[in-house]
Prior knowledge:
By secondary structure, this protein is mostly beta strands. The chain contains one helix and 18 strands. The strands form two sheets. A nine-stranded antiparallel sheet has the order 4-3-2-1-9-8-7-6-5, covered by helices on one side. Strands 13-12-11-10-18-17-16-15-14 form a nine-stranded antiparallel sheet, with no helix packed on it.
Amino acid sequence: MKSRRMALRNTIRSAAAIALVSVRICYAGENIAGRWEGSAQLPETEIKFVVDLAQNTSGAWVGSIIVPGFGVKGTPLGDIAVKDSEAIFAIKNERGLQASFKGHLNSDGVLAGDFVQAGNTARFVLKKIGPPQVELPLHSTAVAKELEGEWKGEYELFGYARHVTLKLSNSKPETATAELVIVGKKTTSLPIDLVRQEGDLVTIDSHAMSMGYEGRLTKGEINGTLNQAGLEVPLILRRAK
């Protein structure tokens, strides 16, 4: 009889322990999930962040980050790991910025820890400002007929003129490709990994070169901005004659 009672008690204790761990995990997950805003203080500058963290329907963690001034807008986070009140995530191969975060959620609801970038470590502090707004990775789309073809424009950077040629075509029924060539002191043909049209907005990205272009088709012109490693310059593209 005693052995049965002891077995029953052990079973109850085990079940209670499992339930407590599950509650802690859920509680931690609920607290880590959200939109976070803050910064890291480096020796010569302060870098600001907006971080979104959430769990998808299968329970896996997903996230994205905005870094104003670095051309990082809704970039997917990688290597996300959440355990109890600890959270780890990283930025990789986007706009030339590679960095990692390792933080702890304290009792005040502040997520703080180490920000590591280019061998430098600084303390980061993030505060939750609302529910998560994770931007999932974008995929190329087809472009409208009025966007297909060759476009030309020019801009000035550091006192030198650059001439731009953009060619857009629908290589597949649902996917467009682009050729983007910039001629300045030298000729650069950018490898394009994203071509996307949403309404009158077209987005071209070359993650490998940390460059991108975003513009709107208006009255036969694409009026937009070229982003080069965080530097933004206006660029209007017109049909090539």
